[in-house]
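Annex B. Sample input.
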Amino acid sequence: MACVIKSDGVPLSADFGVLTLGTTGRPKPLWRSEKSWSEFFDIQNNIFHINKDTKIFLHGSFSFTGVSNMVIAVLWSGGTVVTTSSMRPNRWSQLIEKYHVDHIYALPTKLRLLVRHCKSKLESINFIIAGSQVLDRQLMEQLEVICPNMEFILYYGASELNYITYCTGKEWLQREGTVGRPFPSVQIAEKNGIIYVTTKYHIEGIPDTYTVNDCGYIDSDGYLMFNGRQGDVINKGGYKIPIPEMELYLQSLQGVSEVAVVTITDDIRGEDFVAYMVLEDTAELSKIIELIHHERPSVEWPKAILEIPMLPLTECSKVDKRKLKEWYNKG
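Annex B, continued. Sample output.
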C-alpha cells in the first residue's frame, strides 16, 4: 500500500519521520530529532542487556516504531539483528537455533504463536523483551519451559514518548498488572486516573510532560499499574466493563490460547462485546462458555464467543480488532 506523506507541517527541529499505525490503522508520520532516539539508546540497551555480542530475533514491520527503534538500537551497540518476513513460528525457531540468538523482541501476540508452535527448547535465549500488551501468567510459565535460561523484561512505551517503564518477569508475577518503574531520566505521574510522562526523548511538537491518555495508577512502591487506554471500556447499558480486565480473565481460562474482545453496537444496551478465541487442541468451547456463565455475572457474558484458528494481526503485531469487528458485522 502506498502512503503519501505531506511535507507541510514538518517541525523545523525534525531530522526524520517514523511511521506508526496508531489506533486509526492508517500510517501517519511522527517527526523526531536524531538525538531523541540516539541519546536514549545507551539507556535502553543497558536495561535490555544489549551490547556488541547481542544477537536478537524480531519479527514485524518498520511501521511499528518499536521494531525500528530496536533494530537501530541493536546496530548502534554493534550487535546483530536476525529477522524474516515469514509468519511461520517454526521458521522463527529455526533461525533462533541456527544463529544462536540470545534475545527475542516481540509482543505477547507473537510470543503466544511461538509457544504454540515451538517443538524444541530454545536454550540460547537469555532475554525476552516484550511490549505491554495483555500478559498472563500462563504465557510466562510456557516461555520458561521453552526458554529455560531466559530472563523476561516487560516494557511500557508509546510511539510519541519512547520507552517509559519496565520490569522483570519476577516483578510482574509479584504484581500482576504492573508495567514496572520508570526508565532512568523518565518521570511518571497520575492525575484523575490518567498517566502523565515527563521525558525529553519524545517526538517533536509536544511538551516535555505529555499524556497519550493511557490509564493507571502508581502503587506505594513506585510501580505503574496499567489499566489500558482511556475509553477502553464497554458501556453495557450503564454497566462498565474494562476491556483489558475482561481479556485478562478470558486469557486465564484453561484451554484458551489467545483471545480478543471486540466492542459492538447493541440496539438495547448501546454497547456489548464479542470474544474471539484461539483454543488449545484439547479444549472445548462449550465447556469454556459454561465456565464463564458460572464465574461471571450475566451482564459480563459476551454476546457471542467465536472460535478461530488464529487472530489477525496488524503490521504492528497487534491484534487487528478492526478486522474482527468487520468479520462479526458481515456474519
